[in-house]
Design goal:
Strand content of chain A: 5-15%
Mean pLDDT of chain B: 67
Distance between the termini of chain A: 74 Å
Shape of chain A: flat
Largest sheet of chain B: none
Oligomer: heterodimer
Structural class of chain B: mainly alpha
Mean pLDDT of chain A: 78
Order of helices and strands of chain B: HHHHHHHHHHH
Radius of gyration of chain B: 21 Å
Shape of chain B: elongated
Low-confidence stretches of chain A: 1-11, 38-47, 200-234, 335-366
Number of strands of chain A: 9
Strand order of the largest sheet of chain A: 1-2-3-4-6-5
Largest sheet of chain A: 6 strands, antiparallel
Distance between the termini of chain B: 57 Å
Helix content of chain A: 55-70%
Radius of gyration of chain A: 35 Å
Low-confidence stretches of chain B: 1-34, 138-146
Largest interface: A-B, 134 and 94 residues
Number of strands of chain B: 0
Chain lengths: 979, 238
């Protein structure tokens, strides 16, 4: 709060408030015909607050719900620009209660814990207290547990809530009203506790004497009783006896309420019978807990843990929430956690050499070392290092990423340990599998352990790029399904027979796994440099399956570094070797990358598609548990190749099929779905269905944003593409706004020297250019060029794109020779990097031709237009809207040479093409005006020509200052060609 | 002019590689920011004058404050009202991608520049935005803070080029976040950041120059952020 005395003048020299108020009223009257209403609406007892009214500084958007304590609104915090939830307390709230509320809210506001709803502020407006807090979409645990969940799921969920309580206790806060209704679980499964300290002891104490209310019958649903002023607050069914008795509640009381809630979740009924406060008290004091229902399977040990928390005497409960949580955790992770202390046995070596069968108990012990094998791979120390590294990058989403990544790695480690133990016991204890099979499965698990180790290595050394890719990296850990697929394991490539060689292969595979992790983390250059050493050693071993793996990886890295032809060569060799040795997984991945490198990078679409089909066949054959996801990935890539080819309908079929597969696959796959939706949007945009495209992209954005948060570069990619479509729609301002948003995300994440920052800057420039803000556009293009030359090298196709854009903008600035020079440089790079028939080349040829026209060289222009047209028609098909660009050019060139017949034919085709698709109004206008100019001298044709020209003129006029020249030109033409 | 600027940006460098398996939805706050202003604007367009009136109330004071002290008191009200008139006239064509607030400040800034130019206070050739209020003098009659420390800051602020003064005020007094500043001032966000840095640096230099004693300098500089917070608290308290 202000340290200024009330009388002090405003530190900023602000206007006196009455002066401002009068001015405000006068202005309001001038604008709206009546004086401004009072700043906030008068409040009524029944809390009818209209959408749009103000509560303090918050703007009410909607009512979310009404409860015993008050009404909850969704509101907008204007100062901080965020949507929040506001709980407006009933008017009856006493001053004393309010004071404590405020005190506690301040403490709560300082408490930032993933399992506690964040409280921003407690305030007062119109004599009513309100609490502003984090808005969490999701369901209450009461709603959640209405569906049946197995006991582990229940404990997991309540463990989270328990952590929230524990954190609050540590901060000296007591909840006093913990129950399933006060916990919210979001879609990601994260639980948050809310409404801390809303209940006052005082109010409860007075309830004791209010016999009428105190004997309130417990409603069957136990949601009630709630409360009018002076009556019982909170829900008695969850209250500890001391609180029912009117004594102050403490942390131990929260423990009791917690246990009632979890008990209810597990058994579908609350522990103590009782239909009134009095009978309930009786049951609690007598320790009369209902017998467990026969249809619920809950371990007896778990029940015992809860019953202790339900003791009527606080001193007999668990000493703290933390102690209770420890016990609960032990229940859900019995083998791994419980035996860690005893698990000093080193665990089995991966390729289990024969161990004599001992007695059952001893053998069982042998199978308990799984967890300890993960020591130094994913243990506390490593967790701390990864945490420090990730958070240390100070990325805006780093904390969020850490939470998710650590969760995933925990899960992976747990699953690994569980598989390991199960595989071990299957041989050693239940003797249902042979030693040999166990060896195969252990070896498979060993690979996963190696992958986990490599991943954690990269994360422990995380920089911004790694953090950005961390989720991808973790999600790419191999699944466990394959380790159960004995036929596949038996068919797998055997290691070299020489044990020294076999060991050496293992070492090199570990190095490859690390390189793969680096690649996924975006460190392309470093990874490519490092792989050469691995390749040399692999070569020396003469073990071809490993060579295939090395080549496949090296091919991918070459691709990332923009060396497409070399990448293709390497991948082809890798594929052949993998097939020769029946190295199936490697063959499949290699084929898929070939589809990309050949079909998209090098625009040899038909060939790329064949590789896509090969990969698809292999994905279908594969029995991996990631099968539908893998298949979806292949379909998506085939769709992408088809889209690049211009076979947009086919592309859409494949992309939608991929989407459908993910819908059926277990798990959420939001990011994958987002990527596919974005690709669908791009394909639709190319078809000219811009509005539809935008809808898909918005959905993609929502999904991805939901998964990775709003500051993640993946979100920026989508914003970038949305911006491009907006630009195609002629929505320049919005396009620039989105692009700026994307750019600032990229820059925050990577700094300024990153190829994607350049792409984003390039697109900002493009939007400026279309608005006619040429100087700004040029500055952006030049910056993009500099970044690209720096980061990608001077011969990279993206550099050529920057040069192309500079050509465009300099020609618009009237510097035609400069423009031609840019185009020539661009064409040279593209011919070299992409080949002479690449669609990407055609656009620059076309642009160059336009400028050649403007410099009065129609013949040379015609040659380039013709070249562009033929490339486009071949690459994209004759009906593709791009073709119209060349047609318009050809028409203009023919006009220039007074070749009217030819010109008319070209122009007409261009107009028809552009009318049949949803292109930007300016492009259609341009085609129409050219057509108008080709029309002849008859009266009828002349009228038609004028009509077309006027249509074009009007369209240009609405497109902003960038098209002023076009408007003038048409006006002039209309003057010269009167009706 | 045939524009075939590179239209679709490539995917994230590794485009086709499988992206991560999601861990499920996360309700990150802010991702779902419903722009309440937008709601109001739409309601207003649909004929709900109360919504318009709410928008007005949201922003009137800030716009008034914007002009206050930069120009003669007698025309502050007129300019503020004019600014709102433009939103009334343009409510149906306002760009939804920008915030109403950013739009208002854009208009307000232009009106201020126009007026200063019109009054002949800036040389015709000069860019008003590069002049400081001090250059443009005479000092308007805004009531100054009594406390020396604040006076210093105000004086220093007024000695900045007008565009930087406005930037600092919108950032620290009105709390506009980066993207909105970019919209309001019609400059890229990166420029907002670099200009803010420049403004902070210049402000510091000016204060150093104006301060009478090292103590005063120290207390004035300790620090701008605190001071901005104080200004806000003061505004909220009043």
């Amino acid at each position: 709060m202000s340290t200024l005395p009330e009388s002090a003048a405003d530190p900023r020299g602000r206007p006196p408030s009455d002066q401002l108020g009068d001015a405000r009223n006068r202005a309001h009257r001038a604008l709206f015909g009546k004086p401004a209403p009072p700043a906030s609406l008068p409040e009524t007892d029944d809390q009818v607050i209209e959408r749009g009214s103000m509560l303090g500084r918050y703007l009410v958007i909607a009512t979310l719900g009404r409860g015993g304590m008050g009404t909850v609104f969704e509101a907008y915090d204007e100062t901080l620009g965020r949507v929040i939830a506001i709980k407006l307390l009933h008017t009856g709230t006493t001053e004393r209660h309010a004071q404590r509320l405020q005190r506690e809210a301040k403490a709560l506001a300082k408490l930032s814990h993933p399992n506690v709803v964040h409280v921003y502020e407690v305030g007062r407006a119109n004599d009513q207290w309100y609490i502003a807090m984090e808005l969490v979409p999701g369901q209450t645990l009461r709603q959640w547990q209405a569906d049946e969940h197995d006991w582990r799921a229940c404990v997991d969920v309540y463990l989270q809530a328990g952590h929230g309580l524990d954190a609050a206790h540590a901060a000296g806060l007591v909840h006093r009203d913990f129950k399933p209704d006060n916990c919210i679980i979001d879609e990601a499964g994260r639980v948050r506790v809310l409404d801390f300290g809303l209940v006052t002891d005082t109010v409860l104490a007075s309830q004791g004497s209010d016999s009428g209310e105190a004997s309130t019958t417990l409603d069957a649903e136990a949601q009630l009783p709630v409360t009018r002023t002076g009556a019982l607050l909170g829900t008695v069914a969850y209250m500890p006896p001391e609180q029912l008795d009117g004594r102050p509640a403490n942390a131990s009381g929260d423990q009791f309420s917690f246990c009632v809630s979890l008990y209810e979740a597990l058994y579908g009924q609350r522990p103590f019978p009782g239909s009134s406060v009095a009978t309930l008290m009786d049951a609690i004091e007598a320790g009369r807990v209902r017998p467990p229902p026969a249809d619920r399977h809950v371990p007896g040990t778990l029940r015992a843990v809860l019953l202790r928390g339900l003791s009527s005497q606080a001193s007999q409960r668990w000493p703290s929430m933390a102690a209770l949580l420890d016990e609960l955790r032990r229940e859900v992770t019995p083998r791994t956690q419980r035996f860690v202390a005893a698990g000093l046995t080193a665990g089995l070596v991966a390729l289990g050499t024969g161990v004599a069968f001992g007695q059952y108990a001893q053998v069982k012990d042998r199978c308990t070392g799984a967890r300890s094998q993960l020591e130094s791979i994913w243990d506390d120390a490593r967790q701390q290092r990864v945490h420090a590294a990730i958070v240390g990058t100070e990325q805006p989403y780093a904390a969020d990423t850490w939470a998710r990544v650590s969760q995933q790695l925990d899960d992976y480690a747990e699953r690994w340990a569980a598989r390991h133990t199960a595989v071990c016991e299957a041989t050693r204890v239940t003797q249902e599998q042979t030693e040999h099979d166990m060896g195969l499965r252990m070896s498979c698990l060993h690979d996963r352990k190696v992958a986990l180790n490599a991943t954690v290595d990269v994360l422990a050394d995380a920089d911004a790029t790694v953090v950005e890719n961390a989720m991808k990296l973790v999600a790419a850990l191999p699944g466990f399904g394959r380790c159960d697929d004995l036929p596949a394991l038996r068919a797998a490539v055997p290691p070299p027979e020489d044990p020294d060689d076999a060991r050496q292969v293992e070492v090199l595979r570990e190095q490859l796994a690390k390189l793969a992790a680096r690649q996924k983390a975006g460190r392309y250059k470093a990874a490519l440099q490092a792989i050469d050493g691995v390749a040399e050693q692999a070569e020396a071993l003469r073990y071809e399956p490993l060579m295939a793996e090395v080549k496949s990886r090296r091919g991918q890295l070459l691709d990332m570094n923009g060396r497409y032809a070399e990448a293709e060569q390497e991948l082809r060799e890798g594929y052949t070797q993998a097939m020769e040795h029946r190295h199936d997984e490697v063959a499949r991945d290699t084929a898929r990358h070939l589809a990309w490198v050949v079909g998209i990078r090098q625009s040899r679409h038909a060939e790329g598609l064949v590789w896509g089909q090969v990969a698809l066949a292999q994905a279908l054959r594969d029995g991996d548990d990631e099968h539908p996801v893998e298949k979806a990935a292949v379909l998506r890539d085939i769709g992408s190749v088809l889209a690049n080819k211009g076979a947009l309908d086919d592309a859409l079929v494949h992309l939608r099929q991929a989407l459908a597969l993910l819908d059926e696959a277990p798990g959420e796959h939001h990011r994958r779905r987002g990527t596919i939706l974005d690709r669908i949007g791009i394909a639709l945009a190319r078809q000219g269905h811009l509005a539809d495209a935008l809808r898909h992209q918005q959905r993609a954005l929502a999904l991805v944003e939901q998964t990775v948060g709003p500051h993640h570069p993946h979100v920026a990619n989508l914003l970038n593409n949305i911006s491009v479509v907006l630009r195609m729609q002629g929505e320049h301002d919005r396009a620039i706004a989105k692009q700026m948003q994307a750019l600032s995300i990229y820059e925050n994440a990577w700094g300024e020297q990153h190829p994607l920052v350049a792409t984003s800057i390039d697109n900002v420039g493009a939007a400026f250019a279309q608005q006619g803000r040429l100087d700004e556009a040029r500055r952006h293009f030049e910056r993009a060029l500099a970044i690209r030359e720096q980061t990608l090298g001077e011969q990279h196709p993206d550099v050529a794109n920057s040069l192309n854009n500079l050509g465009n903008v300099t020609s618009d600035q009237g510097q035609l020779e400069v423009a031609l020079d840019f185009y020539r440089r661009s064409v040279a790079i593209k011919e070299q990097a992409l080949g002479p028939r690449h669609a990407g080349l055609a656009s620059t040829l076309n642009n160059m031709a336009v400028v050649l026209m403007d410099t009065g060289r129609p013949q040379r222009a015609r040659v380039q237009f013709e070249r562009a047209r033929s490339i486009w028609e071949e690459a994209l098909g004759p009906e593709h809207p791009e073709v119209a660009n060349a047609l318009v050019g050809l028409a203009r060139a023919a006009l220039q040479s007074a070749d009217f017949e030819v010109a008319r034919e070209y122009a007409q085709r261009a107009v028809v093409l552009r009318e049949s698709t949803e292109v930007s109004p300016a492009e259609l206008a341009r085609a129409r005006f050219v057509w108008a100019q080709t029309l002849g001298l008859t009266t009828a044709e002349r009228a038609r020509a004028r009509a077309l020209a006027m249509q074009a003129r009007d369209a240009f006029a609405t497109q902003g200052p960038g098209y002023a020249g076009d408007v003038t030109q048409i006006d002039q033409w209309l003057e010269e060609h009167p009706a | 002019m045939a524009l075939t600027l590179r239209s679709i940006a490539s995917d994230n460098g590794d485009g086709i590689r499988p992206s991560a398996v999601s861990t499920g939805a996360n309700p990150v706050l802010g991702s779902a920011i419903v722009n309440a202003e937008l709601e109001l604007l739409r309601a207003w367009r649909n004929g709900n004058d109360r919504a318009g009136s709410r928008l007005f109330e949201f922003h009137y004071d800030a716009v008034y404050r914007f002009f206050y002290g930069k120009i003669e008191d007698s025309i502050v009200e007129e300019l503020a009202q004019d600014t709102f008139l433009s939103i009334v006239r343009n409510r149906d064509t306002l760009d939804e991608a920008r915030s109403v607030r950013a739009y208002l400040f854009t208009v307000a800034r232009n009106k201020l520049y126009d007026r200063l130019r019109h009054q002949g206070r800036a040389p015709r050739s000069a860019d008003v935005s590069e002049c400081s209020l001090q250059d443009l003098g005479p000092t308007p009659t805004g009531e100054f803070a009594k406390r020396q420390q604040q006076r210093l800051l105000l004086q220093a602020l007024r000695s900045l080029p007008l565009n930087l003064q406005i930037l600092m005020e919108l950032r620290h007094f009105e709390n506009l976040p980066g993207p909105e500043l970019a919209h309001a001032l019609e400059i890229p966000e990166g420029t907002v950041r670099s200009r803010l840095r420049r403004a902070h640096r210049m402000l510091r230099e000016r204060i150093e120059r104006l301060a009478l004693s090292p103590d005063e300098l120290h207390s004035t500089l300790t620090d701008l952020e605190d001071w901005a917070r104080e200004v806000r608290d003061h505004a909220e308290a009043s």
